[in-house]
Design brief:
53 strands; globular; Ferric Hydroxamate Uptake Protein, Chain A, domain 1; mainly beta; 26-stranded antiparallel barrel; six-stranded mixed β-sheet; 944 residues; OMP_b-brl_3; signal; Immunoglobulin-like; disordered N terminus
Length: 944
């Protein structure tokens, strides 16, 4: 424990003991007409040579501003204020840390300028209300850079390794282009595909919900958003780029994005084809792809999964965005998409996007499992090797129509369609033996499936505001439909051993067909009534229903007929579930100057009716729940806040969990649903402290949350000895007393003299789950501690460096299975360095070193993964680029993961991409715009 406190102190103390810098540059921004200071004017400093932003701040309420010490050099100081002509002044620092008094900086109201032409540089940063606007000419990028590369250079904005963008540590959830959606659902589509050269301004703000934006009533729901405002010439232009690469080991990679914008009309196409595991799919794509969003995901319960060999995963055959070189398996991908935006009659916004993909994924795994069942002779180990070939195809269409009927009424439709086809074949060999090395069983499996699925989801949102401010009414209707079919074949050879002697082989040879249809409908109505000037009451009513039909038909091979015509009643089932809930809620919301709060409760009645058409049995359950909620946000200052949130919710069991049919695809592990499952009831509370200063670029976050679930759905596992071998049978049950604690602290600050930035964080979680093993209670506790550190160094025009280090310290304990308790540690150290060399050469090196310990023999690996590339731009305006890239230079890349599950701990080694080299070429179509260096000149004619 003392080591943990020491580690915490090491990460937190730097932020407590930081010395405050004395001001070195001071001045006052004032209005020439009123002779008063301009409160909260934006003041920026850029390098005189190339206009790159050095730092910026905001004046106080009297117009006074100050900066910390600057290094020796020539600079320009810019002051800006909405509605005033920008002012630029030279700033010469002859000695490091020199004190400079700028005196009064006079600014003139544009409307007071008369009939004159105003010519001025644009200010690097403009702040208007809660919106921060960066002008892109002050943030230099290399030729053919994408938006993501430019965002990394903007103060307060960081980009994670997987492409997630954050502003002052807060995640950006939405990226717009000229205020419109760009491939709805995945902000990385814009940041990773659009060229930085096409963007004129980057605007960062908190976007309110659709209902709040129209009604003007703050409902407390907002998301951090970036709007990319394109250069004027790109609003009526064709632009984009095409790239292709080929190399050793038969590796190839191609990508294109082409955009045709004509005012409000925006048409974009993106496409990719590669066998290098490069993907562009987000988590929401995965869920839509599989239909899980509409039908609910099956919960395993009783444990957590900790991936320690990279960010990849199976994810139904779709490696997610950022998986890349360390994804499980090797994928060949063909994917493309079209996005279209338009505005009709200035009242209706229309967006449509379509995507299609075809992915072939080959995965090889070697797994070592240690099972614990009450100790003694029941404990055993299992080694298995599997090979999977999976082809996944999907087609998805999203649409949005948002129409403002008049100034008081609006309606929005958002339909989505997805189709999916999957062909998969997995062959597996396995061996079970007890802890003394005596063989228990062995066998092989050969399972194949073909699946087809159709998924539809859609919402219609109606919003109305009245003459009286705060009085609104809105209603939303939601529809969901999923139809999936799967044909499968199972061929298993199982050999049992008794006393080390083999028994006759057991063979399973069957065909099965699964059909599942789920239909969902939901509707609500919300009415708000103002109470005074700053508060309101909200009344709502709602009703939701979800009906699921699941059928499984299994046929064994008939030796006499030579056909699969032997109906297997034990493994067949026709099941239906009908879950509905409705009720109403009442809440009170108050928005004060320093704080706002909401308190309310929902009364909900739920009914679950399940029918087993095979056995003719029915189960009916009903629940009445009070679901209170509360939130409080205290705005300590404009950049500091403390928030407290409490919520409750219920979750119904899925059709898979309810269906009482045995899944014997894996002959050593059988899963059987439980039609008697009840809904779960969860409570959660969180406390969040946020402090940031975009001018000094310092931030600090502290977060802690706790949740408790009653009637949680977990697995009850039992071990059946079949004469020597062990068969694990799992079935979902309800338990109470599950809870989870999570906390994190993150802080960051610049070190300007070193042209660097340091971000430090630590996260911890504790999960307490109740389960059953062989009929006995089994408490499983998982605890982890994850400190991390990131260091960034920028030497403009010469080098960019990102270095990081993180630890993953994990511990899993089992009350009924202490023999499989485990402690494991992962250390990851890495850096990414880009050097800008003479003759326009750009050299990049990316290196990660991962050390795994505490795992099974053969899985404690130390892996050094090094990629490097060198690129050269050429042709007019550097429209073309040629790049030589080397992947896995040390030829050490390998995938390792650990899974701490309910009754076993397993270590897995899986195949990943290994060493290869490519030569690539990129050609840009978007060099018609302003590509000159230096600050842009803005010319305005004032007056008549």
């Amino acid at each position: 424990m003392n080591r943990i406190f020491t580690l915490l102190a090491f990460f937190i103390l730097p932020f407590i003991v930081q010395a405050q810098q004395q001001p070195a540059i001071r001045g006052v921004v004032y209005d020439t007409a009123s002779k008063h200071g301009l409160a909260y004017a934006t003041v920026s400093i850029v390098n005189a040579k190339d206009s790159t932003l050095v730092t910026f701040t905001r004046a106080d309420s009297t117009g006074k501003f100050k900066f910390g010490p600057l290094g020796k050099g020539k600079y320009l100081l810019s002051s800006s204020y909405v509605g005033f002509v920008p002012v630029w002044k030279p700033l010469n620092i002859e000695t490091d840390g020199q004190l400079v008094e700028m005196g009064n900086i006079a600014m003139t109201d544009i409307l007071s300028s008369g009939d004159v032409t105003v010519t001025a540089r644009r200010p690097p940063v403009t702040i208007s209300g809660d919106t921060v606007e960066f002008n892109t000419e002050n943030f230099k990028t290399q030729p053919n850079a994408v938006v993501e590369d430019m965002l990394k250079k903007m103060p307060g904005i960081t980009v994670d390794n997987d492409g997630t963008v954050r502003m002052n540590g807060q995640k950006i959830n939405r990226v717009l282009v000229n205020g419109k959606e760009f491939f709805t659902g995945d902000p990385k589509m814009a940041t990773k595909n659009l060229d930085a050269d096409a963007v004129d301004k980057v605007q960062v703000f908190d976007k309110k919900s659709d209902r709040a934006e129209f009604t003007g009533v703050d409902d407390g729901q907002s998301e951090k958003t970036i709007n990319l405002k394109l250069k004027k010439d790109r609003n009526h232009a064709l632009f984009g780029k095409v790239s292709a690469a080929a190399g050793t080991e038969s590796r190839w990679d191609g990508q294109t994005n082409i955009n045709k914008f004509n005012g409000d009309q925006q048409l974009s196409f993106i496409g990719m084809a590669n066998n290098t595991n490069r993907q562009g799919f987000s988590i929401s794509d995965i869920l839509n792809f599989t239909g899980e969003l509409s039908r609910g995901m099956r919960s395993g319960g009783g444990g957590i999964v900790i991936n320690t060999g990279g960010p990849g995963g199976d994810n139904n055959g779709l490696p997610v965005t950022g998986a890349g070189q360390n994804a499980q398996g090797v994928a060949t991908t063909y994917a493309g998409g079209i996005n279209f935006n338009d505005t009709w009659n200035k009242k209706t916004d229309f967006n449509a996007s379509g995507m299609g993909s075809n992915i072939d994924l080959l995965t090889n795994r070697t797994t070592n499992r240690r099972f614990g069942f009450n100790g003694g002779g029941s404990d055993y180990e299992e080694e298995r090797t599997s090979n999977t070939a999976r082809n996944s195809r999907q087609q998805r269409v999203n649409m949005m129509i948002d129409s403002k009927i008049d100034s008081f009424n609006a309606i929005k439709f958002t339909p989505s369609f997805t189709t999916q086809q999957v062909d998969s074949r997995t062959t597996t060999s396995y061996l079970q033996q007890n802890l003394k090395g005596v063989k228990l069983s062995e066998g092989t499996t050969d399972n194949s499936t073909h699946s087809d699925a159709f998924n539809f989801g859609g919402t219609a949102l109606f919003r109305k505001r009245f003459q009286k401010k705060g009085r609104t009414i809105s209603s939303q209707v939601t529809l969901a439909y999923n139809d999936s079919k799967q044909d499968g074949s199972v061929n298993n050879l199982f050999r049992n051993y008794v006393g080390g002697v083999a028994r006759p082989d057991s063979v399973v040879d069957q065909r099965n067909r699964r059909e599942a249809v789920t239909r969902g409908f939901g509707a609500n109505i919300v009415y708000t009534e103002p109470v005074g000037k700053k508060s309101l009451l909200e009344f709502s009513g709602f009703y939701n229903t979800n009906v699921g039909d699941a059928k499984r038909l299994t046929y064994d091979y008939g030796k006499s007929s030579g056909k699969y015509d032997q109906f297997n009643a034990a493994q067949s089932n026709d099941f239906k579930s009908d879950y509905s809930y409705g009720g109403g809620s009442l809440s009170f919301r108050s928005n004060q100057k320093m704080f706002n709060y909401t308190i309310g409760t929902t009364l909900q009645e739920a009914k679950l009716n399940s029918y087993n058409n095979t056995t003719g049995t029915a189960i009916r359950q009903s629940f009445t729940d009070a679901l209170p909620s509360a939130s409080l946000t205290y705005k300590i200052a404009s950049s500091r806040s403390l928030s407290l949130n409490y919520s409750t919710s219920t979750t119904q069991p899925s059709t898979t969990q309810l269906q009482p049919v045995a899944d014997v695809t894996d002959p050593t592990n059988t899963y059987i649903g439980n039609p008697n499952l009840k809904r779960s009831y969860a409570q959660s509370i969180s406390l969040n402290y946020f402090s940031t200063n975009m001018y000094t670029q310092r931030n600090f976050f502290a977060f802690i949350s706790a949740s408790k679930t009653d009637n949680a759905i977990t697995n009850s596992d039992s071990l059946v000895n079949t004469g020597g071998s062990n068969l694990r049978i799992s079935s979902p049950v309800n338990v109470s007393g599950n809870y989870m604690l999570f906390g994190s602290i993150n802080a960051g600050f610049p070190m300007k003299k070193l042209k660097s930035r340091l971000d430090i964080g630590i996260g911890t979680n504790f999960i307490h789950n109740n389960s059953f093993i062989s009929g006995k209670p089994n408490v499983i506790e998982n605890m982890s501690l994850s400190p991390n550190l990131t260091y960034n160094f920028y030497l403009e025009g010469k080098m960019d460096l990102n270095a990081n280090a993180r630890l993953n310290i994990s511990k899993a304990t089992y009350s009924a299975q202490p023999q499989i308790n485990s402690n494991y540690l992962q250390q990851v150290y890495g850096f990414d360095m880009t050097n800008y060399l003479p003759w326009g050469l750009v050299l990049n090196n990316n290196f990660n070193y991962t050390v795994n310990s505490g795992r099974a023999d053969g899985f404690n690996t130390s892996v050094g993964y090094w990629n490097a590339s060198i690129a050269k731009s050429f042709m007019k305006n550097k429209r073309a680029e040629i790049k030589l890239t080397a992947f896995d230079i040390l030829k050490q890349n390998q995938g390792i993961s650990r899974n701490a599950n309910q009754n076993y701990v397993e270590d897995t080694r899986y195949n990943v991409l290994q060493q290869y080299f490519t030569l690539g070429f990129t050609f840009s179509l978007n060099k018609a715009g302003n590509t000159a260096n230096g600050a842009r000149i803005v010319t305005r004619t004032i007056g008549g």
